[in-house]
Specification:
The chain has four helices and nine strands. Strands 2-4-3-5-6-7-9 form a seven-stranded mixed β-barrel. The protein is 23% helix and 34% strand.
Length: 166
């Protein structure tokens, strides 16, 4: 597998390309940080929290906070350690940042939400960035609590693709 750091190449993006779609501004250095975290955590899924400036249609990431995956089956699921999540939320509040979203990896799957991801999503309008290692790609999705597009959960929510820009 070719690695970003080996060639300077960026991972492909599964994000939508329509200019009307929601957008996540993800600086290259933070994208690289997420990819390195995903590689280091293989074969388990990694996870973390994204901070910055939140907007329901265009958010700006300015920080990434890696967290411990405490899922019972971390090779196929993620669950952010609740204590670390609370500490991170307090840090974000103290620095004036907002919760932009969350990230995790799919070591052997695509950079789109799995059925498990759909069932676990709870933060409306936040970004869920997924780093896939096989194939190497980064995708981002907005969790919407109502409506009808892409992927649905029994609760009526769905993930909507979003563009990633640097």
């Amino acid at each position: 597998m070719t690695r970003e750091s080996d060639t300077g190449a960026r991972p492909s993006s599964d994000a939508a390309t329509d200019e009307d779609d929601p957008t996540l501004v993800l600086p290259d250095e933070i994208r690289t940080q997420l990819c390195e975290h995903a590689r280091a955590g293989t074969p388990e899924e990694i996870c973390g929290i994204l901070g910055g400036t939140f907007d329901s249609d265009r958010s700006q990431v300015s920080s990434a906070y890696p967290a411990t995956n405490v899922a019972d089956t971390p090779r196929t699921r993620y669950r952010i350690d609740p204590e670390e999540q609370l500490e991170c939320f307090e840090r974000l509040e103290a620095t004036g940042e907002e919760i932009v979203g969350f990230y995790h990896s799919h070591p052997n799957g695509p950079s789109r939400p799995s059925e498990t991801d759909v069932e676990a999503a709870t933060w409306p309008d936040r970004s869920y960035v997924i780093v896939s290692l096989e194939p190497f790609a980064v995708g981002s999705w907005r969790w919407r609590s109502s409506g009808a597009v892409d992927t649905r959960s029994e609760s009526g929510g769905y993930f909507e693709r979003e563009r990633i820009v640097s």
